[in-house]
Amino acid sequence: MSQESGIAPAPKREVPIWVQILIWLGLLGLLALLAAGLLKARHPIMSVGSHVPDFTLTLFNGYEFKDAAQLKRSDLLGKVIVVNFWASWCQPCAGEAPDVEAAWKAYEKTGKVVFLGVDYVDTEPEARAYMTQFNISYPNGPDLGMKISEIFNRNLGVPETYIIDQQGLLHFIQIGPFQSAAEIQAILDPMIAGK
Amino acid sequence: MLAQFGFGVFILTFLLSLFSVIAAVLGYFNGSDRWVEAARRSMLLIFPILTLGTLTLVILLVTGHYELEYIYSVTSNDMPLYLKITALWGGQAGSLVLWSWLMSAFASAVTLHKWERDRELLPWVIVVISVTLSFFLALTIFFENPFTRWWQTLGGDFILRMFAPTGAVPVFPPDGQGLNPVLRHPGMILHPPMLYLGFVAFVIPFAFAIAALVTGRSDDRWIRLTRRWTLVAWLFLSLGLVLGMWWAYNVLGWGGFWNWDPIEVAPLMPWLTGTAFLHSVMIQEKKGMFKQWNMLLIILTYSLVILGTFLARTGVLSSIHAFSQSSIGPVFFVFIGLTLIISIALLIYRWKDLKAEVEMSSWFSREALFLLNNLLFMGVLIICFWGVIFPLISELVTGQKITVGPPWYQRTNGPLFGSLMALMGIAPLSAWGRSTFKTIGRLLWKPSIPTVLALAAMIALGIRNWIALVGFTLVAFVIFVTLFEFWRGVHSRQKGRGENLFIAIWRLFGSNRRRYGGYFIHISMVVMAIGILGVELYQTTTQKLLATGDDLQLSGYTLRYDSLTQVPNADGSSLTSAVVSVFKGGQLLGKLHPQFATFPSGETATVVGIYSTLADDLYVVLIDWESISPAQAPFKVVHNPLVNWLWIGSLMFIIGILIAAGPEPDKEDLRSTRKLE
Amino acid sequence: MIMKKKVELLIFFTFIILALSLVPAISVPAQQPTPSPSDDEVNAIASQLFCPVCQNTPLDVCPTQACRQWRELIRQMLAEGKTAAEIKQYFVTYYGASVLSEPPRSGINWLIYIVPPVAFMTGVFLLFMAFRTWKKSATRPATAPNPINSRGAETGSCPAADDPYISRLEDELKKRK
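Above: the input entities. Below: the structure tokens describing the complete assembly.
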């Protein structure tokens, strides 16, 4: 049905191809973004066996490792690394602190295991009080910018412990406190046996 | 027993809605009216049956069947009856049930309608609504089943299943965890259902739009048919947003009502496109233009509804509002993807059929100003969308978490909101097609006089904040222009028909409900803006540890700490409440009772003490920070000027919608009012 | 009498001891004259920060134990004379950029500031171009259609009457299209 007027009917135009491409690209981009976000939300924790990316831990004064103020994970390749996340305001952390320190003492001399304490969203005075209270002697530092916790668990809670093997792969995940030093040793002994 | 019955009901309704889809598609492609009728009847049947299922869940909630995991997680023995009922939407599984039930109600209401003229559209309307309903029912049945219960296996583990696993025995906890304390508030009764009503109602115009696209209809019939549904959806969505603000204000104890939290912004986005859509369809109805744009707007609105729901429920965005982790993420993602892809594909396919001749002769015509309205709303939408999405992008690309907070939103959106207010003032004076700068100017000078007087008064009162001056002047501008429009119409009726003032007002509103209801809504919006401006620009706050008898001052008020009571309960919960006296100018205005309750789980809920007047609120929070004792207690006091105009404006808004959504005027009245234009 | 004197002596010495114990407190160095910062001063800074762990919660209203500690930390830093900027920087270093209420203006974050104005101006531009074309075609109907924005003829520009017969006729004609 055409109109009787002075206006000549022009051909009806489809959406130009370049606009279509733009629209679909944008849509796919949005969907990809949502998919990635969803994947991250559903798998916040690093999986056992995956390669642990390198991270840097800036250590508290007085809690250095062999006089190094900063420690990279790559510096410790060849040793077992026990990364223990804690906070001064966390009750269960206080529960496991003596056990973790005892376990450290058992392995310190062997030189095959390094315990790293990572203080998660905490304040330094309270953190120092906590470390003094439990006579903690292994290297400790704050999780600056929360970069280290993001590697292991995007929804980190405290206490959590991640044990990395000599090749830099994640070997064991402990969510929540250890019940005893023996529990820690039961995991570490097989890792350093015969090495 | 009841749980199995409820679950069975949901499976039945799921099958019915699947049948509706298949029957409608068959009916369309075979040109068979009988199949379409079967689909329609099947859809009609869903609502009563689903009501039974929902009722079953409510009964289980109210009678404390804690062996069911959902009941266990949201109710407890100490909760009163009304709270146990509202616990239906206290968690993910139950709120999805509510969603499905509301959608089935709308689905049935739409299919009750007579279908002589638009038989062509019916099959696809049924398909779209039924597919959506099937999706949400599938979520309930397969992913978030509220009827699963606790079992204990032979090994001693506790597991959740719908039906008995071999060798396991049912477990009957004596009490539930109870609803999160923050949710135990009247706001909880109203806010989620209102919001869901708004969300769900937008399915209907969307379904009609898709039906029009599929059947190749290029007229605006689908808009006329769904006009009232759109208004209803928009009403509930607006109410849901306002109730959320009211609830946050009274319960959180933060002193404000909106924080630009991503989950708050999520339902705002469909509201923005919905408002743009409401305005833009008027151009299509009046002038037949912008059909493509309107299609795009309703597709956007509905997609934003689904996107907002996805973001809130799947943990993609982190927020205090977000539901806890759920398994519905992937399937929801697929649903969203398909909705977007199919809708956009259909729109592109039919793009050329929707084109119309655009007659736009003046930059100041009503059509042009409506387009400007759309541009501004889309601007706000892009800002909100970008603010919500960007942290996601940033975290994926750089691994760094960032916050996009209130300062950015306020600064970026501010000018756009201001422009929208200015537009609300000018647009009523503009006519379809013909207005020019001169014709509007001629009308504008009259309401501009009181506006300028208002500005002068503000300056004389000592207001120097330029944002306040601009903001309140714009408010005055809109109010005066709109009242002027009312007066013009009433005056003509009085002169032309000799009606007295009150009859003239009544009949004027009745003669063109949409226009005058719309103007009334504009006034209600700027009244709400008064409250928002007052709080944003002039809020003051202080915090102090007060000993008994001590007082603190804030903005002319004096608050004196009188006494404190701490009532511990046997189950480990306790209620701490303080009595404070409010003075102004030396006179005692009243006593407030700010308090907080501690629950056995350790969570706390605050009850704020508010002294409200039209001019301001004095908002007093008893803080659970330092050690509280009858000798001393810490208080946080916030002074919120003009905040109650926000709630007054929302009430006016409801009235405005009721006016606008009323039945059409009769022909006789239409002819006489045309003389005015 | 002697008893009374002994009591007086006791009180006197107690007083001296108490006074002496205050000396360390009195003899504080002149660099710390300010009393402990008030809650309001702490909140003024805390309200500009977000809690690092609770989602989207400003630091001044966050009720958790950790947040209380952070507010005390702010109080301490204020007492040491640190400025608001220094305190914020400390929080960013320790807890990441998410504590700020706006992304820092660096790297990819520039996009958050640039995209909205650019998008809006694009919209304004598009609308402006569209308006001009529509105005042109409205005032000069006989010219050749503008290649950017041409519109086809439309079936009837008068608002669709609610007359059921006309609508049914239109429907039938549409079906035959």
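Note for the figure: Residues 366-398 of chain B form the longest helix (33 residues).
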